[in-house]
Amino acid sequence: MKRLEPLIFELSSPGRRAYSLPALDVPEQDLGQLLPAGELRQVPAELPEVSEVDVVRHFTRLSQLNHGVDIGFYPLGSCTMKYNPKINEVVAGLPGFANLHPYVPESMAQGALQLLYEIEQYLCEIGGMARATLQPAAGAHGELTGLLIIKAYHQARGERRTKVIIPDSAHGTNPASAVMVGMETVEVKSDHRGGVDVEVLRRVMDESVSCLMLTNPNTLGLFDENIHVIADIVHQKGGLLYYDGANANAIMGYARPGDTGFDVVHFNLHKTFATPHGGGGPGSGPVGVREDLVKYLPVPLVDFDGQRYLLNYDLPDTIGRVKLYYGNFSTIIKAYAYIRAMGPDGLKKVSENAVLNANYLMRKLLEHYDLPYDRHCKHEFVVKPGRIKEKTGVRTLDISKRLLDYGVHPPTNYFPLIVEEALMIEPTETESIETLDYFVETMNQIAREAYADPERVKTAPHTTVVGRLDEATAARRPVVRWKKE
Amino acid sequence: MTYPMEFKYTKDHEYINVQGSEAYVGLSNYAQDQLGDIVFVELPEVGRVIKQGEVFGVVESVKAVSDCYAPAGGTVVRVNERLLDEPDLINKDPHGEGWMMVIELADPSELDELMDINAYRRLLEEVGH
Amino acid sequence: MNFIPNTERDRQRMLEAIGIRSIEELFEDIPDIVRLKRELDLPRAMSESELYSHMVGLAGANSSFHEYVSFLGAGAYDHYIPAVVQHVLGRSEFYTAYTPYQPEVSQAVLQSIYEYQTMICELTGMDVSNASMYDGATAMAEAAMIACGQTRRKKIVVARSVHPEYRAVIHTYARGADLEVVEVDFQKDSGQVCGSGLAGQVPGAGCVLVQQPNFFGCIEDVQSIGNLARQHGALFVVAVDPLSLGVLRPPASYGADMVVGEGQPLGVPMSFGGPYLGFFAVTEKLMRRIPGRVVGATVDVRGQRGFVLTLQTREQHIRREKATSNICSNEALCALAATVYLSWLGKEGIQDLARHCLQKAAYARDRITSLDGYQRAFSAPHFKEFAVRCQVGTGRVLDELLKKKIIAGYPLGRDYPELDDVLLISVTEKRSRGQIDALVSGLEGLA
User: Fold this and answer.
1) Which residues pair with A76 in a beta bridge?
2) What angle do CA C200, C146, C254 make, to 5 degrees?
3) All chains having 3 or more CB pairs closer than 8 angstroms to chain A
4) Which of C96, C325, C336 sits opposite A84 (nearest CB)?
5) Which residues does A287 contact at the CB level (< 8 Å), separation at least 6?
6) Is the CB of residue A240 less than 8 Å from the CB of residue A263?
7) pLDDT per residue over A274-322, tens digit each?
8) What is the ipTM of this complex?
9) pLDDT digits (tens, 9 = 90+) for A225-251
10) What is the dihedral of CA C97, C101, C103, C108, to 10 degrees?
């Protein structure tokens, strides 16, 4: 039986301790000699006083209150919650990596630099790009980096372009990133097939537009068949094309963003390349660019002179740094190991099976759920409970909460915004047909429940450790930290 | 929920209730219903001069946020400070206790561009209410 | 290797259910002219054992800190990480979850973030902490952006004694947002930011950014800087070493509006620079401006306490172009490491640990600067790092000590041409008196 766990602070007992320190084996000086009296701390921070057993039991018990990929199906759309290979955790923890200080002389970090150099090449090959920076720590950080590069490119050409075009199906990070680089956003509507409306794009595309940001396949899981036309429209007016790589799991080995007209590409290593999501992070969002944009990449780049790997800071036109050191190295190790394990054929199979799983699931769900765009999807798709809602009042949120009772993590809810009551489902390639069938069965069961006993669904979940939480009060009167009474 | 006869309404679902040279501005019942539980309200500074159609405030529910547009231009003379602690007043009594600001109208003729109760009812019917 | 469970037979069944003959048909919407018509040019696949050997080889081509005694800090520190940290982080309920969008099955992640937020608030004295940023540098850059938004001013004043890479990131972000960045030099004798220089630049600025202790390890006169900022309506942003707060007073006490910093010292391995942990805490007044995720306490329908993501309307998935930041994924697992680490360390432990670092650094400083040819570069008091002027030059010092398996420190000349002969030396609790003495005798031989 799962039980709620007290806060670590509530387990605290004065004088109890877990820590041990090496002996203070130097002569101790008076604190007042070493630091100005005014800078000394008077009241200690109220950290918990607990034993090591308390720490271990607290976090172990707590962990049992969470769903994760290792526990069950996690079809959260656009997040690519695939299985995270355990060997990657092991190799990232090797002391030669984990204990390496970022400022050791290059001669002492040749293995790490080689790894960075090689994964940059792999990502460029997969994306069809000339070179890449590994510095960005997440997809949104990659977007920011890419947009800064695009801004620098236009500025160097003496052009002041102030707009970024973003489809209405885009991730929220796209417009938020655009604003961070001082751009205005222009939204283009999707057409009846779920792609960018080419005619609308033609109308809004002019010399004031810096770039178009596109996720392809998009958040409906649909590959934009007009991508080459879109690229032409944007390029003809001097704009650039930015690829949001959140959905790259669908196309590896089939199409490379660079070949489809994209100039700047980010990848999410924590999605496509199987590094764990960590409860919200760390991620990694490398950005690749075409040849003439290489000079704007953040410094340093890792180069190879034929004998030695070295950090290259000599990029006079660089946009500068976007992060400390060289990126989320440990995450990058895991993606590197994944690419080496899979090989070219393995990566292509990943995309094939991700797409097959998604299409299978999509077709099997249509008995009770509705498809807004009836065509083959890529790695994910969107359905909505249109008939169910109309007849029973049961909404997407209710269905998602009821899924929790069956041990399944719900799909992404209410996104993309252009589909009302959206359920965005991404099964990934690492799920078996049995898991997919169980999900279909469960979704159908919930639909039947909705017709027979809608309240049962509307008040779900019933079996989780907590029921529905009062988010309105949490936001009205925020309590965002524990306080000693 | 009834909509007061004497109010004027905007297509963005703000209302304005003129009392002499002053006017109360708030969100219509339809607006609050669409937003759901309102958790936070941002109000303009007293004394600020606002143009018709300009953003004068922001209301937030748990998972939505909405700008509020001034139905008419004028100077802000009072704001409903109770909303800072009780934002849900807008949910409970949008046309009364849940008012957001009072402005002194700059140009009463601007009101002519707004919807009266009948026109607003037709709009609500169009959006399915 | 392959993590695809479905067999050829499964795939056939699925194709039949979809009503198609081959997987290829599912890719027909990719136009022929943009298709890749060859195999990706990548190394061939490896088995798990081959992969392991390959990775051991790469890791072995680095010189691990196990083989060297290191006095290298400069923003990434060699503090001991207790075994419980990796143990908890290895729980896959934590590391294979994502952002807790479904609170009913995410109480572990949510509650641990709530505990983390509380610890950051306790350490810094601030009212509200977020769930984490990418690192200390991006946290400081985003703080500057928010300060300029809040004050509606376009100028950022940053001390030149702030970590050079932090400043580099601030410049990058500021260029994007079309903000001006002014750097204020440090005093050549004390190593602290120049007070008169600040006084000249702060009027009209949206924020003042300093680091405590600063990049040279020196304690800044934060009270005066805070007063100056307040006097001119600029927000005061301070980056701190969280472990220093075991002995140094919390930034809230000297008027910081936002406190940021690098959480790597809190149980996160150095890992060649990442992933690390940016922490970000603000006063209550700025609560609705804070970037990223925030967890709040509430109750469920059964009346039990539970935790949820809150104040979400600040964030990109709702506010889109009006969000306070574009951050989505953060460094949650590193924040969990910090929470476990700080639980292990506890109320007394952090004070003891800070004292050990302080005392050992002071001992090292006294021994080194009593040698001929080595002088303190700056007069200001310091915490666990200090700068030493080396008559023989830092290059010679580093090379010679490396032969004795000692990494002597960080050459400040890399970032400050005028400090070409100055070495930044970091001493954590892990360094024994014997190791410090070995460094001293290595240096002595050179002078």
Assistant:
1) A425
2) 60
3) B, C
4) C96
5) A132, A133, A136, A142, A145, A146, A149, A264, A265, A266, A297
6) yes
7) 999 999 999 999 999 999 999 999 999 999 999 999 999 999 999 999 9
8) 0.97
9) 999 999 999 999 999 999 999 999 999
10) 30
